Predict the structure.
Amino acid sequence: MEVLTGIERIGRIIRREPVDRIGLYEHIWDETIVKWTQEGHLKEKEPLSVHFGFDLDGFNPFKLIADTGIDKKIIEETDEAVLYEDGNGVIQKRLKNVTNVPQWVDFKVKGYREWESEIKPLLKPDKCRLDMEGYRKARESARKNNQFFVCSSMNVFELMRALCGHECMLVGMALEPEWIKDMVDVYSQLIVDLMEILFSEAGQPDGVWFYEDMGFKEHPFISPAMYREIIQPGHRKTMQFAHSRKLPVICHSCGMVEPLIPGMIESGVDCLQAMEVKAGMNVVELSRKYGKYLSLMGGIDVRVLFENNRQEIDAELESKIPVVMGNYGYVLHTDHSIPGNVEYDTYEYFIKKGLELGTYKTF
């Protein structure tokens, strides 16, 4: 049987064309990488994509924060945590020595006035916002290893959330929609302009990956109607630009986003990634409902790996892989990322079992 390269395999999966097996990719926490390296399973700074044979690799070359001259302005630091202000004027607290999401303390931008005067004038498509060298090296490495290479970036929802926080952004959508629409327009144009510069000077990727966490437990943050009215114009602009370059679009979105999927497909999403089980997403049902129009990556409950129990892993994979591989549009990935309580041998077994189940008998 013919064996495809990662570039060929992921390209076919996104187009839902016959392949030799399902795809493979994963996100792994830094603390997990440190642990596995200390245990001798990984070499120091060894690329995970090469070690595990991932079909895909990517790089985020963009600096989309408002003031690129400010990285982290330290306000207070202790042995346990650091309090700092970022280039968006957001004050955050991050715990040390553990993988964690920063805690938001305060935001400079609380409405249109601060956006218009403090932030908007700074959001210009300057080359200082691009890590050209890092992108070139990552692209060359992926080419060398025959991996499908994605250029990744946050999109408008995530960029607004990072600027003013969920509460302010969502209230703004309801009470000040013109302000939010202006942010969507400015951020989406910035993304397009920077991609145009990057791809022209450093070469095109094989696809584009956008991060947009638009859901929480059992519900999206916004209604389908609000998505179409406010967020979709930005998604259309950025995703249609990618499609104009013949680049497919993968969109990561944590939480329950199923009600938004029809609008996301309209916007140009070719592959949906994550499908968080604990939030209420069901990859089997999504495959049955949208599998002819949308490729899927993820949806395997990462919690079954926590106990390092192979029987539980078998049950999870056997209940999902045979169904979701049916449309040729599936990439093996957990529904989140791999934390430090997962043993190396457990994750290695997860890959082996998943790909065994996901190998097509005829190709």
Remarks:
- The two ends are 7 Å apart (CA to CA).
- The first strand starts at residue 23 and ends at 24.
- Residues 144 and 302 are 30 Å apart (CA to CA).
